[in-house]
Amino acid sequence: MPEPRHSRKTRQREAVLAELRKAKDHPTADQLYERVRKAIPRISLGTVYRNLELLAAVGAIRVVGSPGGRRYDGEMASHHHVRCTGCGRLDDVHMDVGLEMPRSARFSHNYELTGYQVEFLGLCPACVKNFSRPGRKT
Amino acid sequence: MPEPRHSRKTRQREAVLAELRKAKDHPTADQLYERVRKAIPRISLGTVYRNLELLAAVGAIRVVGSPGGRRYDGEMASHHHVRCTGCGRLDDVHMDVGLEMPRSARFSHNYELTGYQVEFLGLCPACVKNFSRPGRKT
DNA sequence: TTGCTTGCAAAGGGTTTGCATAGGA
DNA sequence: TCCTATGCAAACCCTTTGCAAGCAA
User: Fold this and answer.
1) What is each CA distance from A76 to A55, A60, B98, in whole angstroms?
2) How many CB atoms lie within 10 A of CB B136?
3) Residues of A in contact with B94 (CB under 8 A)
């Protein structure tokens, strides 16, 4: 696969990005596909995947790996996440956690650090309620 | 699938847990399978998966969801991770980041928070070296 | 016109499941 | 003995790819 030297502006690519930008949740590729399909019925799942990969590669969107499938995040402003350990629900946390980057080689493993992301863990309101029978992990 | 009421102690389960506890990396199910196979050649991949799921459910191990596959972590002491955005390499960061939990409902989305985990991002030494041609994302 | 993109469909790879048998309590 | 756990293989996702046609630049 020869790496493309220039990427083009296509309806499909713009639709995928637009849909992700306005999404309030963190959709999977398939969920995004269903949404984009309302505007471009003949778009294919493969195209959605290819565009998500490209958009992530150029840093236009974020990928959130989670057990149960990859999710995408269209909000680029620095923010963190809360994940429900009961049902897998994921929400944004807009808060300045004012965390300092590790500077010593011992802590950073000699990585060239560029940023960080905090994932808070807990139970969402729904799972707190059903605490005795929490939803299935996703 | 009737939820088992009591879990039993089996060679396979203990071997999976032991192997993961002594692992210094964050193996995938398949990598763990290969390692456990040295002790129990006839163990099946399915058994490894089932035990990993059970062990995670009872909180004996941690699951690290990442683009490119699920990984498992046998170290339960609180720690964080550094992920290379170039090649996907994952390392531990043992450091007290002294982060305070969000208390306001606005930030916590009414979650009952139990903990948090920081993921530092950056380039590992190898990818820094090949900066012009970073390895493939995993 | 060039060569990146798309649709479609098949291929891939990781994870889950059904079932008969083995084995822990 | 009772019920959970295992081995094996098939079934199931989700994601990636090959290819011919479509379409930005």
Assistant:
1) 12, 7, 25
2) 8
3) 107
pLDDT of residue A138: 33
Instruction: Evaluate if the CB of A79 falls below 7 Å from strand D.
Output: no
Q: What is A1-76's CATH topology?
A: Arc Repressor Mutant, subunit A (1.10.10)
Q: Which CATH number describes the domain made up of A77-138?
A: 3.30.1490.190
Report residue A46 as tokens: 């493969």
- End-to-end alpha carbon distance in chain A: 33
Q: What is the pTM of this model?
A: 0.86
pLDDT digits (tens, 9 = 90+) for B77-135: 989 999 888 777 889 999 888 888 888 888 888 999 988 999 998 888 988 877 644 44
Strand D contact nucleotides, protein CB < 7 Å: 3-10, 14-18, 23-25
What rounded mean pLDDT belongs to chain A?
A: 88
Hey, where are the domains in chain B? 1-76, 77-138
- In degrees and rounded to multiples of 5, residue B49 shows phi and psi of -60, -45
**Chain A residues touching residue B113 (CB < 8 angstroms):** 82, 120-122
Task: Provide, as residue numbers in chain B, all residues whose Cβ is less than 8 Å from the Cβ of A113.
Answer: 82, 120-122
Interface of A with B in 78-107 (CB under 8 A): 82, 84-85, 91, 93-95, 97, 99-102, 107
Considering only CB atoms, A65 lies closest to which of B66, B102, B107, namely: B66
Instruction: Answer yes or no: are the C-beta atoms of A38 and A29 closer than 8 Å.
Output: no
Buried/exposed code over A46-75 (b: 16+ C-beta within 10 A; e: otherwise): ebbbebbebbbeeebbbbbbbbeebbbbbe
